[in-house]
Structures are given as structure tokens and as C-alpha cells.
Amino acid sequence: MLTANILNLFDQTIFYGTITFENNRISEIHKLGPERLGEPYALPGFVDAHVHVESSLLTPPQFARLAVVHGTVATVSDPHEIGNVLGVAGVHYMIEEARRVPFKFMFGAPSCVPATTFETAGATIGVKDVRKLLAMKEIGYLAEMMNFPGVLYQDPDVMAKIALAQAFNKPVDGHAPGLMGDKAQQYIDAGITTDHECFTYEEGLDKARRGMHILIREGSAARNFDALIPLLAQYPEQIMFCSDDKHPDTLAEGHINQLVVRALAQGHSIWDVLRAACLNPVLHYRLPVGLLREGDPADYIIVDNLQTFKIKQTVIHGEVVAENGQSKIQDVRSEHVNQFNCQPKKAADFVVKLAEANGSPRSVRVIEALDGQLITNELHLSLRPDGDQMVPDVERDVLKLVVVNRYQDAPPAVAFIKNFGLKHGAIASSVGHDSHNITAVGCDDASICKAVNLVIEAKGGLSAVSNWQATNQKNDKALLLALPVAGLMTDADGYAIAEQYASLDQYAKQELGSTLAAPFMTLSFMALLVIPNLKLSNKGLFDGKNFSFVSLETENQRL
Length: 559
Hints:
By secondary structure, the chain is of the alpha/beta class. The protein folds into two domains: about 45-290, Alpha-Beta Barrel (TIM Barrel), CATH 3.20.20.140; about 345-559, no CATH class. Helix 2 crosses helix 3 (about 90-100), helix 4 (about 125-135) runs parallel beside helix 6 and helix 12 (about 255-265) runs antiparallel to helix 13 (about 270-285). Helix content is about 25%, strand content about 30%. Strands 18, 19, 21, 22, 23, 24, 25, 26 and 30 form a nine-stranded mixed β-sheet that branches. The mean pLDDT is about 95.
């Protein structure tokens, strides 16, 4: 039996009472009297309404170990990342790993594997595969439909996948950054019910008015909370909180609980806030998660007060999984499944040769990375070649960006990028949405090559290397965080990985000079073709607005 102040999210009341349990379910809730200040509070646990577990760099058991400490009891998890590497087998891997711990993962059937035909992925998940996945009880929805042009132009495969989800009576998640007006209505009319990609208030308002559920995202790279939180008071029944992509260091610090505290600090109603954090995801996705009612599974959290929301205890299906900041979920090892088939590269592989070596400045398309956003801008900048090569301009923060095919040996794709801020060296990652080829950014070809080869030799990971010639050090320094599970995750202790990642992140900022809040997370999205404007796939520079490849040099090639 539990005695506490009990929150009823349905009638929006707080009372002091007891909760009795039987067979891991709530058998009785008994009211003793009004709320008692100074006593702890019991309420439903938090739900992340859209997350790629793989982006935490942790396997499902390790993700759960960290999340429960912050009061998270469930996630709506899109296994799209491992799906792009291993196909349906990757989805089954996530489901099996999730079963090993007392945490409520709800997985979706990836709708866009590969995300586009303009990149090389490790697998394809077609209509027949989606049908088999949706038939499984562990699959609760059709995951984000990133191919919004396919919806607008009624691509047969896209429409068939949506129709399957509707036939199975399972929700369809959306992904339509920047889509508004009639096109947004057409996207919604196709049966798509959510969007986590709104990055302005105006966009969120437009879609909410049309009946769409808006997921307010605050992850490690994309942070839209401040822009979208005003929608909570206007459309409390349509708002949910999510992280989308959250690296291990920030997951160790907090999760959905942080958004709850921030929303309350801005003056939002506690009932609206908890509706977004606890209630709406469970109702929309029909999650098997208890909401502190008689007959529900015993899923709940205990907090000290309703201002700071310090988590005293997290309980899932009657089992205490976290208490006073300590996870009680077991630290387990997992099988290392993978697909990594490319060979080490040479510095010469990353050279950008020019047909004419006359030293004239060239007008070049440059990707402008935006801190805290997945979208990028397309800049046209003048770069002066070095002999017959186009090279970075470190002083102007125009660096070289490369994408290396990890599934087979092929020439790397090379472009230029602004706003990473590196002063020397390079960073690289095999986490490269959506196909998860190797993405690297750096100041010189030798450093880029070294960073890429560290990842290749480990068959997945994040790396950072210095350039001793640029820093007058005796030797180059190289750091690596290995990701042996699909080149995306590790089964090592999540807290140790959080520390290792934080060290790597700080090295990229303090030693190499990156000015981004999350350089590795931002890097992982520079090959994400379905988010405009300009990105780089392993096949070349890509215009995300017009869905077509473009040349490195602009039409006005010389200035």
C-alpha cells in the first residue's frame, strides 16, 4: 500500500489517500482527505512521445537504465535508425532487447527505409515488410512518414503503407518540416496524426488548428521548446513532449521531467503540462501504460513536490525501477549485430580537384549548420583554390564535410560547411541520419582521413582528432567512442558512456574549437536529406527543397 498526495489527471484533482496493489495492478485508490503539503505526490510516469533510442548511442536496456531515474516509464520509439542499417532484423533486435528490462517501449514500423533514393542505406523495408511488422502486437504505429512529397504526390508505396496502418487501426506519425497551409491539410487528410518537426510557432499553430497533434521536441540538437510551448495553453489535448534524439550525456542529466519543470516555470497549468507529459501519449498511441486509475498497471512516479519534481521513485508494472536518483534496472550486455563493409581511406580520397588551376575565386555552395536546428541554409560563398584543389577556409569557418559509404567501398562525397567552428583537426561519426554512413567535418584532409579511419577500424563510433602541426603539440591526439552495435549503439554501462561522450564533446569544443552546443549530434544530421535546405549524401550535394542533387560550384562559378 502507498500513502501520498494523489494526482488524478482526468478530473484534475489532488487528494491525500492510499493506493492498494494486487498482481502488479492498482486494485483500489482510497481518498483520506485534502492535499497535505509536505507529503510526497504520486502521479503517472512520463512518456517520451517520439524518440530514436539508437540516437542515445545506447541499447534499449542501457537507455532504460538512465531514463527511469528521471521518471520516464515509457517511450514511443521509432527504430528507423537501426532499420536503415539492418532492415527488419534490426527492428526485431530492438524489440528483443527491450524485453530484457522492465520498461515500456512501444516501437513503430519504420515507414521510410531507405529515407530517400538519393543515398545508400544498408536495407530496404518495403510494403510487405511493413504489413508483417504492423501485424505484431509489439508494433503500435507506423513511424514518421518523412517522405512528405510522396504523400503529397500520392506515391503508391507511401500510400499503401499508410493504408496498412489504418487497416490495423494504428496511428501514423508525421514528419513534415515547414509544411503549412493547403499542403499541410493534404498531408493530414492522408491520415497522418502527429508532427514533431515544427520549428516555428506559426507552423505549429497552423497544424494544430487543422487538428494535428504537435509534439514539442527538445533533444540534444533540435530544440523547439521555447518556440512551441505557447501552443500548450491553446491546444492542451493535442500537445505532447518528446526528445526525438538525445545523446547519453544529456539523458544522464534529465529527460521529459526537465520539460515539465520548464513549462511550469513559464506559468503553464500543471494539468496542461502533465497532460502533455503523461496522458496524451498514452491515449493517442493506446500505450499499455497505467494512468493511476483502479485496474491500471502499477506504473507511476513519486515526486517530492509539484515545483521541482524531484523524482523519489519510479515504478513500472509494480516494480521499483529507480529510487532517489539510482537506477535499479540491471546492467546487461547485448549481442553486437552490425553491417560495416568499407575499407580504410587515404587522405587523397578527400581532395576536391578543379578542372582549371588558375587561382581564381570560385562561388561554392556551402551548407550553413544552425545550432539547435536540423534545418540548414544554403550559402553561396567565394573560396580561393589552392593550386588545383578546393580547400577549407578555416579563418572564415568554412570547413570540409565528407560522407563515406560504410556499406561498400566507394569514393567519398565532399562539400563545404560553415558554423562548426573547428580551428584544427576533425570529428567523424557513423551515426549519420538516415542511412548512417560515415560523416566527418574537418580542417584538412589528413585529419579528416584519420577521424574517418578510426570509425572504420572500430566498425562504428564517434571520433575526434587534433592536428599537431596546427597546435605545435608533439603528437596528434585521437579520441574514439566505439559503437559496436550496428555502428549506432553500445551495450556498455550507460553512465560510463555518458561520461565518455561528454569528454569527447568537450574535446571537440575546447580543444578543436567547435562553437556548437552539440557538435556530434549536429554532424549526424548533415546527411539528413529529408530536412531542407542543403545536405550531403554519400552520392553528392543535395537540395532538400527541390529533392535533387546540385553541383558544388554555383552556376556563377567564377567571381
